[in-house]
Design goal:
This protein has six helices and four strands. With 152 residues, it is an alpha+beta fold. The longest helix is centred in the last third of the chain and has 15 residues, at 113-127. This is siroheme decarboxylase.
Length: 152
């Protein structure tokens, strides 16, 4: 995927610290010295090409509720079907296929641990698969971001 100059600047500047205001895309445009329409078109192009998965906040789960890492051992013939089922839950994010017996991994979030437990039971009932529940014991913070800078 080829990334143009505006896309590179947008990614580098706003992977973190998206403006919290009534018109965030206008504020982004001002910071990048371009138009709001250009920012929106750039974001749409990044999304349609697979370079952008979402725009939104990341919350500290222990302050906003509860979460756990979940893994399922999904038979290969059912992978697409089960992944679609899992993706229908609004409480699911970061759903990935991995090379392992437990091959489908996702993060499950909810308002409290009781909701997480109920969701795990529901997922098991709907998929026929037993979820591996891996709640976080400690957080080791990293500043997850991928500066891409100028084109080579």
């Amino acid at each position: 995927m080829q990334i143009d100059s505006l896309s590179r600047r947008l990614i580098d500047r706003f992977q973190h610290g998206m403006p919290l205001c009534a018109e965030p895309y206008r504020a982004m445009a001002d910071a990048l010295e371009c138009s709001e329409d250009e920012v929106l078109a750039c974001l749409e192009q990044l999304e349609s090409s697979g370079g952008l998965s979402r725009i939104g906040p990341v919350f500290e789960h222990s302050r906003a509720g509860a979460s756990t890492l979940v893994a399922l051992a999904v038979p290969e013939a059912q992978l697409e079907e089960i992944a679609e089922q899992i993706n229908r839950y609004p409480e699911v994010n970061h759903n990935y296929l991995r090379e392992h017996h437990y091959n489908l991994w996702f993060v499950l979030t909810g308002p409290d641990r009781a909701r997480i437990d109920a969701l795990l039971l529901q997922i098991e009932a709907e998929t026929g698969l037993v979820p591996l529940d891996l709640p976080m014991q400690a957080a080791y913070r990293i500043d997850l971001g991928f500066p891409i800078g100028d084109a080579p």
